[in-house]
Amino acid sequence: MRRKKILIVGLGNLGCHVLDLLTKHEFNHEIVVVGRNETFLTQRINLALFCAAQQNIFPLVSHKVVDLNNIEQTAETLKEVNPDVIFSTATLQSWRVITELPKDVFLELDQAEFGPWLPMHLVPVHKLMKAVKLSGVKSIVVNAAFPDAVNPLLAKVGIAPNVGIGNVANILPAFKYSTASEINTTPEHVDIRLIAQHYLSHRIPRSGDAGGCAYHLSVLHKGKDISDEINHDSMFKKLTSQFKRIGGVDGQALTASSALSILSTILNDKKEVVHAPGPNGLPGGYPVKFDGNNFSLALPGKVSLEEAIKINEIGLKYDGITSIDDSGTAFFCEKSMEVMKRMIGYHQKHMKLEEAEEMSKELKAKYTAFANKYK
Q: pTM, whole model, 2 decimals?
């Protein structure tokens, strides 16, 4: 198999986790990291290289300084590197920032759900995709920033990333363990097919239930469909007890692992089913298969494409976004925005794509002023 080239955009917490995994598990491929701080890039890459060297592994890793705000410069770098895969972790504000608030304040603000923060995740990915288009490269783009909503919104204007990571995939391992305990087997004999929006993967590990959100779950044991035999309530509750995991910053290791499953599939042309949000610009998450240079859905036989999309469009409302129209305008749930207004003084009914950057600046300023009260 030929050596492929993967370009990582951004070395935040998630990007660093993924870099470490790639240098250990996909060291036969070339890794290029781009970001704005050359000193940090150099030193963090050296840390990854030296850790790999302890295992007598010597991957090929380099870096380039890039600012996504400079679309022309980014496009030139993409043309020069010509990567097979672009993995973007870029965002204006990580989801975990609000977890640094006092617990009671965080829990109250978290009731707004993820949707109102859409501008923070959309803006950098939008700029990256403009640069991809300008560069002419044919890279497969993998987006880590709220792909359940960012990817379908950018699909409306024809520049969606190919696929996302995390979210629907993050909950799969716990489901395997929980299901195995329910039917007295081991997790390697359990296969899950899940169609679900980001909200579900956020909700169940914290509350032990789906919160009314739409989803589809198919369960196979040694290849036999046993979906009708599974008690979802019992299975979900175990994620808050027997199979409860550490979350927050430490929990990013799981997101990085789910990213590796997608990146490894692309780099090595694997054919097995994986789970991913935002494939081909669709809302929410699905089981998918990589075929050539494309992802196709691997839906359970009883679920049509139209039904799967509808499940995730309903789920998007639970994330605080009522809909995304054909112009790329996102409409926010009033319930979510009322929380944002009460807590940080921010309220928007909708967001046009061209308004996203100004809205992100307003949101950042108001959240910063709010968070500073608790420092």
A: 0.97
Residue 1 confidence (pLDDT) above 80: no
CATH number of the domain where residue 115 is located? 3.40.50.720
The answer to whether position 85 is within a domain reads: yes
**Kind plus residue range of the DSSP H or E element containing 175:** helix 172-182
Angle at 55 between CA 54 and CA 56, to 5 degrees: 90
Question: What pLDDT score does 84 carry?
Answer: 97
- Whether 302 has a pLDDT exceeding 90, the answer reads no
More confident residue, 331 or 251: 331
∠321-15-177 over CA atoms, to 5°?
A: 70
In a domain, 100, yes or no: yes
Q: The domain containing residue 38 runs over which residues?
A: 5-168
Q: Long-range CB contacts (< 8 A, 24+ apart) of 297-304?
A: 298/193, 298/273, 299/193, 299/195, 300/193, 300/216, 300/218, 302/218, 303/195, 303/216, 303/218
Give Cβ neighbours of residue 15 (< 8 Å, ≥ 6 apart): 8, 9, 33, 89
Residue 127 lies in a domain: yes
Q: Which two tokens stand for residue 328?
A: 């790329």
Please give the mean pLDDT across all residues of the chain.
Answer: 97
Rg of the chain over Cα atoms, rounded to whole angstroms, equals 20
Q: Where are the beta strands (DSSP E) in 160-243?
A: 163-164, 190-195, 216-221, 224-225
Distances (CA, A) of 227 to 103, 218, 223, 303: 37, 5, 11, 13
Indicate the length of the chain as a whole number.
375
219-233 as b/e: b if 16+ CB within 10 A: bbbeeeeebeebebe
Q: Which tokens hold the place of 31?
A: 């890794």
How many whole angstroms separate alpha carbon 353 and alpha carbon 229?
45
- Domain total for the chain? 1
Q: Is the pLDDT of residue 375 over 90?
A: no
Q: Are 262 and 276 in contact (CB under 8 A)?
A: yes
Of 146-155, 244-253, 311-320, the poorest mean pLDDT is in 244-253
User: Does residue 46 lie in a domain region?
Assistant: yes
pLDDT at 46: 98
In which band, very low, low, confident or very high, does the pLDDT at 291 lie, cut at 50, 70 and 90? confident
